[in-house]
Design brief:
The protein is mostly helical. Helix content is 57%, strand content 7%. α4 packs antiparallel against α5 (133-168). It is globular and about 50 Å long. Bound molecules: zinc ion (ZN).
């Protein structure tokens, strides 16, 4: 599942006319991502169902920073951009309610735990000041490794958050495993641990909570 899609190709983005720091570049990359993902019809019954599920979660998790849901179509299942815009595919409306809530709660985990800010800080640590090709080329490998490690940890944290939130809205968190199965097995990527590792962590968390 390509949930948080933090592209590590961000450093290869064409430089803009004015001087930018790395957080500007990251923001630009997220904005490009947002604009590239096709929006679904917001008035459709599937979009309405997603909005209702999302509202259920927000009600059960007070204290979240302001967050928006945008319903999308296309191959991406769900991801969060700019730290506070959750993009969720209209196909999630076809899943059983508990599985849909798990996917949305996972994205809220990224928002609640300020994962965007943490990631921006890693980039800033390696690329302080103005972004230049000389500067970024020299650290790209080490930055990529740090960012990838953090991204994997954030996925596990967002899954754990989602399990807790599922319980709070009255669903058996074990449906998380069904959600992984329905959405298809994936291998490890730079940004995401593979399904096998995520399911193993969910099962260990559930076993520990009993
Ligand atoms: Zn995620």
């Amino acid at each position: 599942m390509r949930w948080l899609q933090l592209t590590f190709l961000v450093l290869a983005l064409a430089p803009s006319a004015r001087a930018e720091d790395i957080v500007d570049v990251l923001r630009r990359s997220q904005q490009a991502r947002l604009e590239a993902l096709p929006g679904a019809d917001p008035t459709s019954p599937r979009a309405a169902l997603l909005q209702r599920s999302f509202a259920t979660l927000l009600q059960a998790q007070p204290g979240l920073p302001p967050v928006d849901l945008r319903v999308i179509t296309g191959p991406v299942i769900a991801e969060t951009v700019h730290g506070h815009i959750v993009l969720a595919n209209e196909r999630l409306a076809d899943l059983p309610e508990g599985e849909r809530l798990f996917v949305l709660a996972h994205e809220l985990g990224h928002v609640a735990q300020q994962h965007w800010l943490q990631m921006a800080m890693v980039y800033q640590k390696w690329v302080p000041g103005e972004v230049t090709p000389e500067q970024t080329d020299a650290v790209a490998g080490r930055l990529g490794r740090d960012a990838s490690q953090l991204a994997h940890r954030q996925e596990f944290e967002a899954d754990a958050f989602a399990l807790r939130l599922l319980r709070r809205v009255g669903h058996d968190p074990a449906v998380a495993v069904d959600a992984f199965m329905h959405l298809g097995m994936t291998q490890d990527t730079a940004t995401h641990p593979g399904t096998r590792k995520r399911v193993a962590l969910v099962r260990a968390t559930l076993a520990g909570a009993e």
